[in-house]
């Protein structure tokens, strides 16, 4: 019997684990967080995880898949350092917003430039990121953060979207479309952003710049960051996040894994 | 004499101004003597200026002007890296460097550079053809010749000043961070009293190791007048996975503003490309420019065509203190007990080990006691991070080591708590990042910034939103959430 390690117990990772187990593969599902469902917990995760367990998937929660090399996955977690043998590694480690470098935002290094994913957790912990935040992004995360910041006490929320004219501005936001942030300024905290729309530059007062632009795959397993012969990527990056999209990505990854094992 | 309402609290034998890699190395060297030493630093943490955004190269001195103080100190520091790195828990790798020439015209400069290396006592050799491909398999095939410098190394230059300062601190040196020199009073040609934003010092000797601010500090202390201008360098950091293809440093023939951009493996396996060189006026301008970064990448692709920006993790800029005279190191002509350690433009890390001893010897020559402090330590209690040795079993022995907070850099909760409890602890999220690399990886804190902030906030005063990112005022948030 082949052994496969699936890294990441978001919806997609759980689904692909179950599919592989149902095909007779020995599957260990490794999740960094103490519960299944991923960083932005999906409500159906617990139920999906139970189904996967019934199909024979072994779960290791609170455990990071740290490195894949020579048919072994090194993990670090509540059970200590555990090495798993794996004929293939399925990477289902979810997504993240683009970083400042990926967005090409130049300028000063003042505080207040925040990844959107961290913003969500900090808001949940009672930290208001800015009174005049600027949110970069077009997708669900950006929309949700614009709304969450507004109800958490922000006075003005600026939304900078790459999408073209005709997109409906989200309620309560000062919206720039067809736009990108060129640079941010201010030290020790950010106080201004330069937004470009074609040739037009606008200086926007902003005391926080939230990076919530298009989701990209979160890759952080050493030896598998840029793929490899026994590495199968399983990312569902389409917006919005739906069960159907996750299932489609899982099915595709399952097929690919079976091919890899052949 | 001017008067001040500030209490006179300090009468150290030596007051060091500046806690970059030079100031901290001097502090460490002096900490082995039975003398009283204090350090003042304008920024909230040690190593916050030039010392945090540099190449990490520990130069072996091969290309420096023979006989210069710079060459002497760099050459004297080079053989000591392995020893100091193991004692302080700083990662060092002697990776080697290859300088590439892309035409026979460029290659005609090779023999002069090789002779210069010989004068500096450094072994290098000209390489061509198969031998060039062997020592630098990643170099462009268009290179016609090169110089191979096996002794060139890379060090974790971000941790280096922290480690120097921590050993100094363990040995009794007092660090006053977030405190600037305001003025001084002189009498009989000596600095008598130094006023900072928080206290007064009456030191026997003052060492100016203020880096970019050394001109201002010298003037404030009544010392020599000179000017330091910032030379900005922009960098792109590439992922460790790309680092596997970069076994050693690549550089081109030197130009007017020093070496052009280089391809540099870092001590922890990632790759730096840069820097460019641009003389500025504003000493705080650490901004990056899109055009500058593109230019850096293009020029480095000449050295190594495989460079691909899909591996880019982050971009940043650093300022090097450029002075009319490099290595302005020695006694001030204006104030007899003021020792300058200034104008150290681009080899501060490389010369730091010997610089500490050099300044110590100058002070001893002027009457500072050379009696050793019998209780002084030579090493630090420090648990290295996972990336230093990849030993999962070692890390898992500590229950906190089993919780990986930063998944990209594999930084555990144990590492973060250590950074906040060290002899000279991190006092900001940035300080934790500098000591651990947390939030510095591929996702740039997307997954871990909230976790790192939470642990840091347990150690810093105020509410969670007030947790500093770096300098005072750099709060994590703007206030407390309302509503719901």
What does this structure look like?
The complex is a heterodimer of chains A (262) and B (484). Chain A is of the alpha/beta class. In chain A, 26% of the residues lie in helices and 32% in strands. Chain A has six helices and 20 strands. Chain A has a five-stranded parallel beta sheet with strand order 3-2-1-7-20, with helices on one face. Chain A starts with a strand and ends with a helix. The mean pLDDT of chain A is 94. Chain B is of the alpha/beta class. Chain B has three domains: 1-92 and 155-227 and 324-382, FAD/NAD(P)-binding domain (3-Layer(bba) Sandwich), CATH 3.50.50.60; 93-154 and 229-321, D-Amino Acid Oxidase, subunit A, domain 2 (D-Amino Acid Oxidase, Chain A, domain 2, 2-Layer Sandwich), CATH 3.30.9; 386-466, Arc Repressor Mutant, subunit A (Orthogonal Bundle). Chain B has 16 helices and 25 strands. In chain B, strands 10-3-2-14-22-21 form a six-stranded mixed beta sheet, with helices on both faces. In chain B, strands 15, 17, 18, 19 and 20 form a five-stranded antiparallel beta sheet that branches. The N and C termini of chain B lie far apart (60 Å). The model of chain B has no long low-confidence stretch (mean pLDDT 93). Chains A and B meet through strand 4, strand 5, strand 6, helix 3 and strand 9 of A and strand 20, helix 13, helix 16 and strand 25 of B. Strand 11 of chain A pairs antiparallel with strand 25 of chain B.
């Amino acid at each position: 019997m082949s052994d496969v390690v699936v890294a990441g117990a978001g919806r997609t990772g759980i689904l692909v684990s179950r599919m592989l187990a149902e095909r007779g593969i020995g599957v260990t599902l490794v999740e960094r967080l103490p519960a299944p469902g991923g960083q932005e917990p999906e409500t159906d995760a617990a139920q999906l995880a139970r189904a996967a367990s019934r199909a024979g998937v072994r779960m290791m929660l609170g455990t990071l898949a740290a490195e894949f090399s020579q048919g072994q996955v090194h993990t670090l977690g509540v059970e200590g350092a555990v090495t798993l043998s794996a004929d293939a590694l399925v990477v289902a480690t979810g997504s993240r917003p683009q970083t400042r470098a990926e967005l090409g935002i130049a300028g000063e290094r003042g505080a207040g430039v925040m990844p959107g994913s961290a913003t969500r957790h900090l808001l949940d912990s009672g930290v208001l990121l800015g009174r005049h935040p600027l949110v970069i992004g077009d997708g669900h995360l950006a929309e949700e953060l614009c709304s969450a910041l507004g109800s958490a006490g922000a006075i003005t929320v600026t939304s900078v979207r790459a999408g073209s004219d005709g997109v409906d501005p989200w309620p309560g936001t000062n919206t720039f479309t067809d736009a990108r942030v060129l640079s941010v300024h201010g030290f020790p905290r950010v106080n201004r952003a330069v937004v470009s729309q074609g040739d037009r530059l606008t200086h926007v007062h902003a005391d926080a710049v939230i990076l919530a632009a298009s989701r990209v795959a979160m890759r952080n397993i050493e030896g598998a960051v840029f793929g490899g012969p026994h590495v199968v990527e399983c990312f569902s990056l389409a917006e919005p996040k739906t069960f159907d999209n996750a299932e489609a990505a899982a099915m595709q990854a399952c097929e690919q894994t079976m091919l890899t094992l052949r | 004499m001017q008067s001040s309402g500030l209490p006179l609290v300090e009468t150290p034998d030596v007051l060091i101004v500046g806690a970059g890699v030079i100031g901290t190395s001097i502090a460490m060297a002096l900490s082995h003597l039975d003398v009283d030493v204090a350090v003042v630093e304008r920024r909230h943490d040690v190593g916050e200026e030039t010392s945090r955004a540099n190449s990490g190269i520990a130069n072996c001195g091969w290309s420096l002007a023979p006989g210069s103080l710079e060459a002497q100190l760099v050459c004297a520091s080079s053989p000591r890296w392995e020893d100091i790195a193991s004692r302080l828990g700083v990662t060092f790798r002697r990776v080697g460097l290859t300088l590439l020439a892309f035409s026979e015209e460029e290659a005609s400069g090779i023999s002069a550079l090789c002779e210069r290396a010989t004068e500096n006592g450094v072994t290098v050799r000209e390489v061509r053809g198969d031998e060039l491909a062997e020592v630098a398999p990643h170099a462009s095939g268009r290179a016609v010749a090169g110089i191979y410098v096996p002794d060139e190394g890379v060090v974790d230059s971000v941790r280096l000043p922290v480690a120097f300062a921590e050993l100094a601190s363990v040995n009794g040196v007092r660090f006053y961070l977030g405190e600037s020199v305001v003025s001084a009073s002189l009498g009989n040609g000596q600095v008598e009293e130094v006023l900072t934003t928080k206290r007064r010092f009456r030191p026997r000797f003052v060492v100016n190791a203020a880096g970019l601010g050394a001109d201002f500090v010298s003037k404030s202390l009544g010392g020599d007048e000179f000017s330091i201008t910032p030379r900005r360098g922009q960098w792109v950091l590439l992922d460790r996975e790309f680092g596997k293809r970069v076994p050693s440093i690549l550089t081109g023939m030197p130009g007017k503003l020093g070496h052009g951009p280089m391809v540099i493996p870092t001590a922890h396996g990632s790759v730096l490309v840069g820097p460019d060189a641009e003389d500025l006026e504003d000493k705080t301008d650490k901004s990056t420019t899109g055009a500058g970064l593109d230019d850096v990448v293009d020029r480095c692709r000449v050295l190594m065509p495989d460079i691909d920006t899909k591996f880019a993790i982050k971009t940043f800029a650093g300022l090097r203190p450029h002075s009319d005279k490099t290595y302005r190191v020695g006694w001030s002509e204006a104030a007899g007990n003021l020792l300058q350690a200034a104008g150290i433009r681009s080899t501060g890390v490389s010369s730091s080990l010997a610089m500490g001893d050099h300044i110590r010897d100058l002070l001893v020559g002027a009457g500072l006691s050379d009696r050793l402090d019998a209780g002084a330590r030579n090493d630090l209690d420090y648990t290295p991070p996972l990336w230093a040795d990849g030993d999962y079993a070692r890390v898992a022995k500590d229950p906190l080591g089993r919780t990986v907070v930063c998944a990209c850099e594999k930084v555990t909760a144990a590492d973060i708590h250590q950074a906040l409890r060290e002899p000279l602890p991190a006092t900001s999220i940035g300080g934790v990042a500098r000591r651990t690399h947390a939030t510095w990886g591929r996702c740039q804190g997307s997954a871990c910034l909230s976790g790192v902030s939470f642990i840091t906030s347990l150690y810093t005063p105020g509410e969670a939103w007030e947790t500093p990112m770096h300098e005072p005022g750099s709060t994590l948030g703007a206030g407390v959430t309302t509503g719901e």
